[in-house]
C-alpha cells in the first residue's frame, strides 16, 4: 500500500488560529494578505510561516492565562500546548537506519530545549517521534552541516524524513534533500525540509542522514519538529 501522500506547501487555517491578540498583533498585515476573497475567515499561506504563527499564538494564549494565576510558572520553551506537538533539539548520537539505505538515524537530546506535548512522544533510543493522534501534521527538520576540517573529497550529503507506518505496515522515505559538497571548500550550510503529512495513530517518524560526521554534537540549531494542524475526518 502507498505511504501517506505529501500535501501542498500552502496551508489554510481559520484566520483566528494565527491572529495573535496578546501582547500585540504583529501579523495583521500578513493575515490580511492571506485572507481568502471567497471566505474571509480563512487564511492561506506558506506552511512554515503558518506553523510559526500558530505556535506563537498558542504560547501567547498560555502566557496570558498565567497572568491571572501567580502560582503558575511558565517556561516559554516548555509551555504545554493544547495541540499535539514535538520539538527535538540537538543531535547527540546516531544509529544505523533501517529505512534510509546507508543512512544513520539521528538520536536527539532528551533534555534542554526538547519538549513534547499531548500525544506526541519522543522515543529516545530510536530517535523517533511517536504519533498518538491521527491528523495532518506539519513536519520539519533543520540541520547545520559543517565540512570544515574534513577530508578533501566530494560527496553527496543526504537528509531524510522517514516513516514507520503502523496502519500500512510499511517503511518509507517521506522527504529527501541532498546536496553535493566538496570538503576542501570548508563550507557550512543549512539543510531544511518541511511539509504537511497525513499521519495515523502509532505512526513513527524519524530523521536520518548519509553522514552524521558533518553534524556538530548537540547543536541547538538542529531541530526535528511535528505540529498537529487538524483532524483528517
Automatic annotation (TrEMBL):
InterPro entries: TNF_dom, Tumour_necrosis_fac-like_dom
Highest taxon listed in the record's lineage: Eukaryota
Parts forming coiled coils: none
Segments forming domain THD: 84-229
Family of this protein: Belongs to the tumor necrosis factor family.
Name by which UniProt lists this protein: THD domain-containing protein
Species whose genome carries this gene: Mya arenaria (Soft-shell clam)
